[in-house]
């Protein structure tokens, strides 16, 4: 799985080419200190220190050139996160090692590393030589940035992999790989055993899949048994046809990414384990394929859940909340300190917030506020939507305890969150993320394809909550 450690190192006076960091405010002073030749080079390149721009500054000899990189309007006292300030640079520079001078946003190493990410599993191309960045911080700070980059790349790799190579079994393998790395234990309940162990909703969604792609609940446990229990839950729908309420071609095209919630939860679990956060970690991934066959669950069916609530199926394409509800019930049975769940759950969240902002809902406003603050600190914003309880009436059923979806199109993300809330005990702190897990257009350091949205915010919040304990 992705490792970004070789792309970032502490600056210990190694041989390296210089990158001069220049803000717009400091641009005139920087140019004034250059030689006439350097000033001419800046003028010829039309360099103005705008964010994401760069120019080559010639030296006294042919090989003595350096780089000037613009980071825009960052003020000298600006402590906000700027992870993408240098993200476009590695793709425009030759291989080698580079050192930063000037105002250095410490977190710019994230963009530098992820600017070299590519998903090349199926391409006949040679791997590009690394561009190494020296950061003026200690080894622990560098390792933290590299771990964040590696976790984000893990999400990208998992989401970008087509369903033929990323089914429930392969997703389980990815979980076991992380468990082996960090000494965690893994247990899986698969196929018909889901019924005997009381996970009927997970089984109902995944039972139509082909042999070898059976539904499963994968559980990872790690950490000190006496520490506060942190439970992470991920929606692992490895492909979503929509079931018998089949999606159209356009809607189905990207459904390899419907396990993006599981990818986020696994990447966050990796960060928790790698940083040795003082928690008792449980990761629950409900991994299924929502397929169409004679055994598929049907609109109008009433299915059981681990909680004991009966659910009438209004729409087989609202399957993610069905697999999550059994996992949430299991999590609450263990009285954890905190539950976070991640899911590519609703198109309604994208209509409301677009692709960049994960919708967040939960039952504790202080916890939600902490998550929002953490997102701002690391430039990974999240946006809170209300769990507006009057909308629960949209989930009423005439023949079951509730329906899995509302009959209309109003408040689709909120009604999905409300459905999940019925499976969370009132005294358990819980946040739900409805994330897109996809970058629809190329941006510096963020190519089109799978993407982690809300991952770094969640990690920062957890560090603040638990690291001091």
Automatic annotation (TrEMBL):
Domain of life assignment: Bacteria
Pfam families listed in its UniProt record: Peptidase_M17 (PF00883), Peptidase_M17_N_1 (PF21337)
Keyword Manganese: yes
Similarity remark: Belongs to the peptidase M17 family.
PANTHER family associated with the record: LEUCINE AMINOPEPTIDASE-RELATED (PTHR11963), PEPTIDASE B (PTHR11963:SF20)
The protein's name: Leucyl aminopeptidase family protein
Domain Cytosol aminopeptidase: start-end pairs: 315-322
């Amino acid at each position: 799985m992705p490792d970004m450690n070789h792309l970032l190192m502490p600056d210990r006076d190694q041989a390296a080419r210089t990158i001069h960091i220049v803000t717009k405010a400091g641009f005139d002073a920087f140019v004034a200190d250059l030689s006439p030749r350097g000033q001419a080079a800046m003028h010829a390149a039309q360099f103005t220190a705008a964010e994401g721009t760069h120019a080559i500054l010639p030296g006294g000899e042919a090989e003595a050139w350096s780089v000037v990189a613009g980071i825009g309007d960052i003020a000298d006292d600006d402590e906000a996160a700027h992870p993408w300030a240098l993200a476009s640079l590695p793709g425009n520079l030759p291989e080698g090692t580079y050192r930063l001078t000037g105002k250095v946003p410490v977190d710019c190493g994230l963009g530098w590393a992820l600017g070299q990410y590519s998903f090349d599993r199926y391409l006949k191309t040679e791997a590009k030589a690394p561009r190494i960045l020296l950061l003026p911080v200690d080894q622990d700070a560098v390792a933290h940035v590299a771990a964040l980059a590696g976790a984000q790349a893990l999400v990208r790799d998992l989401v970008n992999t087509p369903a033929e190579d990323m089914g429930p079994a392969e997703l389980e393998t990815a979980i076991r790989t992380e468990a082996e790395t960090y000494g965690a234990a893994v247990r899986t309940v698969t196929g018909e055993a889901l019924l005997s162990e009381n996970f009927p909703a997970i089984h109902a969604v995944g039972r139509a899949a082909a042999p070898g792609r059976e539904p499963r609940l994968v559980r990872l446990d790690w950490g000190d048994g006496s520490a506060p229990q942190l439970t992470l839950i991920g929606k692992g729908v490895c492909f979503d046809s929509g079931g018998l309420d089949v999606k159209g071609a356009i809607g189905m095209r990207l459904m390899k990414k419907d396990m993006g919630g599981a990818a986020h939860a696994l990447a966050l679990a990796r960060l928790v384990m790698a940083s040795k956060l003082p928690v008792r970690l449980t990761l629950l991934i409900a991994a299924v394929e929502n397929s169409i066959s004679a055994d598929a669950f049907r609109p109008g069916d009433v299915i059981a859940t681990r909680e004991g609530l009966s659910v009438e199926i209004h729409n087989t394409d609202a399957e993610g909340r069905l697999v999550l509800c059994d996992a949430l019930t299991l999590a609450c049975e263990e009285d954890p300190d905190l539950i976070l769940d991640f899911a590519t759950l609703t198109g309604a969240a994208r209509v409301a917030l677009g692709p960049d902002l994960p919708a967040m809902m939960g039952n504790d406003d202080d916890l939600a506020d902490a998550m929002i603050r953490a997102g701002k600190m690391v430039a990974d914003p999240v946006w809170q939507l209300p769990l507006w309880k009057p909308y629960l009436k949209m989930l009423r059923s005439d023949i079951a305890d509730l329906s899995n979806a509302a009959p209309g199109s109003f408040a689709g993300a909120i009604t999905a969150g409300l459905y999940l809330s019925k499976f969370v005990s009132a005294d358990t702190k819980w946040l739900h993320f409805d994330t897109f897990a996809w970058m629809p257009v190329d941006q510096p350091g963020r190519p089109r394809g799978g993407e982690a949205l809300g991952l770094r915010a969640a990690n920062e919040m957890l560090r603040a909550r638990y690291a001091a304990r």
